[in-house]
Amino acid sequence: MSDRKPDGRDEDAESFGRLVEGVRQFSEQVYPERRAEFQRLASGQRPHTLFITCADSRVVPEMITQTDPGELFVCRNIGNIVPAYGEMLGGVSAIVEFACTALDVSHVVVCGHSDCGAMKGLLYPDDPGLRRMPTVASWLRNAEAARSVVEVMRPGLEGAAKVQALVEQNVRTQMQHLRTHPAVAARVAEGSLSLHGWVYGIEDGTVHTVDERGGEPVPLGRAAGGRPGQ
Fold first, then answer.
1. What CA–CA distances, in Å, run from 54 to 19, 82, 151, 178, 223?
2. N or C: which terminus of the chain has fewer CB atoms within 10 Å of its end residue's CB?
3. pLDDT digits (tens, 9 = 90+) for 131-166
4. Which pTM does this prediction carry?
């Protein structure tokens, strides 16, 4: 049985109309003003950073980093997850390999965010909503190590505080998974690739860096040179 409101179709039409209007504004106003930039990009891309983040609609990498087209190679999925190499070869692994080998990016950012629904699902696997999504539940197993760490190291946490702790630990876990990918391991070993862990606060617009080894997150601006990671 559907939970849609009787006027749902009108709302859908209005939402899609906004997309169409946005395309019109881009074509008629934005593109002409930046024509030279897009024509330059038409012949190829040279992004400096692979940005791995959640598919959550509230997270907009280019807005958060104030970057232009062609700067970020973006990978989005539920929970900003990077399966360890060989565990689940597929889209994410291919993106990582392509970014580090073909595009020769200099940085990889794993960016989690506050109020992450994926982390809530990981904490509460018996939730009826998650039970209706077996593919999502299977995907979240790639973050199970993060949940285990939080349960052992932060046993007194509950509610939103526990979700936030898991958001942070999941970033560390996915950075560790990244290092199992041959394309990443080789570049890190030769010193040509830096890994960075970030957590974006939707409610206040802040970005904190997460040290892979642990400790409290630090505001990005206070991190050494603003460029944590190695």
1. 21, 11, 22, 16, 23
2. N
3. 999 999 999 999 999 999 999 999 999 999 999 999
4. 0.91
